[in-house]
Specification:
The chain is α/β, with parallel strands linked by helices. The protein contains 14 helices and 14 strands. The strands form two sheets. The chain has an eight-stranded mixed sheet with strand order 3-2-1-4-5-6-7-8, sandwiched between helices. Strands 11-10-9-12-13-14 form a six-stranded parallel sheet. The structure holds ligand SAJ. The site of ligand SAJ has 20 residues, from helix 8.
Length: 406
């Protein structure tokens, strides 16, 4: 049996996927409300194909509980935030989960860390916890790192098809865990050592952050000199060795906007490019605010209460708003002591911020300038409703004539 610890954005789909492929799974989470929701037959977030996967896993006998299980395999999938001051990883959730696993796990168990961690985190934090509990690593407890790689919005497909990395002290244990993931994963699974696996995951997300920062910097240069950044990126990407990502209103989510900081925190003297890239991405919400002010000036608009932000989530068609550019922009605007801008997002049902709407038509009726912060399908399918509005599209989601871009 496998006990999956942490039933969030990664742990839940992973547990469901394994269960629906014949692995006996118990999912554990300390959040009793979340466990009760799952036990009542409901998923806890929206994701393509997740509900169907949930049904299949229930049919295969998956269980959800707040209790840690006595079993032979644990998969730890809990958040890894960073310390905003030192930029270093905050491993408190991983540490707490491993401590709790140690209270119940028998000798011979394998502990797999799925959470993204900076290189050396397992050496610095996880190994000492296991040893303090009287276990000898490699003899009593096997330690493995199997970082997840799936992208919100396409998680179910990517769980099935993405290549994976498994880091283990002992290659034989790595191969054993590889078989477990191969129960559902059709991608190639590379077995390496733990520190290499830690580093590869952080490097993958850092590469994406730096590439987005480059696109964002290009957007600023092009805005300064009246060039079309999208056309330029499109043409450059026709070169066989160029692949520039898209500029946007900022970078959110719990991965691309977080993981590169781990490297800055641990290697401050060696991470000039990464540090500057993160700063560029973090500057984008303020850049959008400047664009709003410039457009208002050009149009002779003075009333900020007639400006509305479309989208609160960190990217299109997901309901996750962690570190979202819209929240960053509102925080930035607050500093200027203005009344918060109006906001609407079809994926956010609860009241999250001031001046939030839950109906697209009501929102549009109350604003003259619409800032598309997220390119949800909803707005792409309702572009006609934007006719007659001033539109700042930060995502190239809209193709109406006369709209403003970054
Ligand atoms: N963004 C841009 N321009 C782009 C692409 C993205 O501004 O061209 C923005 C998005 O709008 C969003 C942020 O970047 O605010 C991050 O979104 P994302 O879609 O790039 O990535 P995540 O955070 O949803 O998922 C990433 C993925 N990593 C890589 O592609 C290298 C995923 O595979 C990882 O599993 C995930 O991080 C994770 O959990 O680490």
């Amino acid at each position: 049996m496998v006990n999956v610890i942490g039933l969030g954005y990664i742990g839940l789909p992973t547990a469901l996927m394994m269960a629906s492929h014949g692995v006996e799974i118990v999912g554990t989470d300390y959040n009793a409300e979340l466990v009760a929701t799952l036990n009542a037959g409901h998923t806890t977030f929206k994701e393509a194909g997740l509900d169907e996967l949930f049904r299949a896993a229930l049919d295969s006998g998956i269980k959800f509980t707040t209790e840690y299980q006595v079993t032979d395999t644990y998969i730890v999938s809990v958040p890894t935030p960073y310390d905003k001051f030192s930029k270093k990883i905050d491993a408190c959730y991983v540490n707490a989960a491993v401590k709790d696993v140690m209270k119940v796990c028998p000798k011979g168990a394998t502990v797999v860390i799925e959470s993204t961690v900076s290189p050396g985190t397992i050496d610095r934090f996880v190994r000492p916890i296991i040893e303090e509990n009287g276990f000898v690593i490699g003899k009593d407890i096997n330690l493995v790192h199997a970082p997840e790689r799936i992208i919100p919005g396409n998680m179910v497909y990517e769980l099935l098809h993405n290549n994976r990395t498994i880091g283990a002290d002992d290659p034989a244990i790595g191969e054993k865990v590889k078989k477990l993931y191969a129960s559902f994963c059709a991608g190639e699974i590379v077995v390496t050592d733990i520190k290499t696996a830690e580093m590869t995951k952080v490097v993958e997300n850092t590469f994406r952050a730096v590439n987005i920062a480059f696109a964002n910097e290009l957007a600023k240069i092009c805005r300064h000199d009246g060039m079309d950044v999208y056309e330029i990126i499109k043409i450059c990407n026709m070169h066989p060795r160029v692949n520039i990502l898209q500029p946007g209103p900022g970078v959110g989510g719990h991965c691309i906007s977080v993981d590169p900081w781990f490297l800055v925190g641990d290697y401050p003297a060696l991470t000039k490019v990464i540090w500057e890239s993160m700063k560029v991405n973090d500057s984008m919400p303020e850049f959008v605010l400047e664009r709003i002010h410039d457009i208002m000036k050009e149009k002779g608009m003075t009333d900020l209460t007639r400006v509305g932000l479309y989208g609160l989530t960190y990217k299109e068609n997901v309901d996750d708003y962690r570190e979202s550019p819209t929240l960053q922009l509102l925080e930035c605007q607050e500093k200027h002591l203005a009344e918060p801008l109006k906001v609407y997002d079809p994926f956010i049902k609860k009241d999250l911020v001031k001046n939030q709407y839950h109906d697209l038509d009501k929102f549009l009726a109350d604003v003259d300038l619409v800032v598309i912060m997220v390119g949800h399908n909803e707005i792409k399918e309702n572009m006609d409703k934007l006719v007659g509005k001033v539109v700042l599209d930060t995502r190239k989601a809209c193709s109406l004539p006369g709209i403003y871009r970054l």
